[in-house]
Amino acid sequence: MDGSDPLSRGRGSAPAASSRAGAAWRVLQAATAQLHVPVEATPPMAALMSPAVDHDTCIEVLQRLLRIHAGWEEANAARLRALPWPWRPRAPGLRDDLVALGARPGPRLVPAPVAACDAEAWGMLYVIEGSALGGRLIARHLRAYRPEVAAAVGHFETSEDGPGWPAFRQALERALPDAGSRDRAATAAQAMFEHFHGQLAPSLAVAGDAGTVHA
Known about the structure:
Elements: H1 15-20, H2 23-32, H3 36-40, H4 43-48, H5 55-82, H6 91-100, H7 118-145, H8 147-152, H9 155-158, H10 165-175, H11 179-200
């Protein structure tokens, strides 16, 4: 989920300033490095990225993503909107996509991490904003193997809307200027990955009516 680009190394910069460049992003990247693969390897995500991906799999993945986002957004919306970043809720778009595919969006919310401070909110946003990078790959895959689904689903296409990953990394550096705030953000980012994994890990066999996941 993390982007990676070379850090600028301006000549004449003080060593202390150079060592701080990218500090927040690097702390979060290191804290979550081992958590990407387990999420991407969950049965629903593996099925979604298979050439044999089908309509029902797409519905189930969207249902699970809705469960991930809806409760988290409801619990954290006020704090997220107060941050100096154009946060955009994703649950409404996921509901629209499910209806477009002929499914009934699951109404049940699940417990989600709640940010106790702005630093924790930034750590959770690190995971959400980073997921847009993976969304591009998913959108390309669906266009290749399920073009009719890709035409109906906007989540993976529009998840990258906004200022973009480089701008988010710059905002992160401003928001997390010290070790304490970066550590709080890193812990929250780990909790967010665990939230994703908890909803994506159950087997595809638990799908219920109209694609609603009950596990």
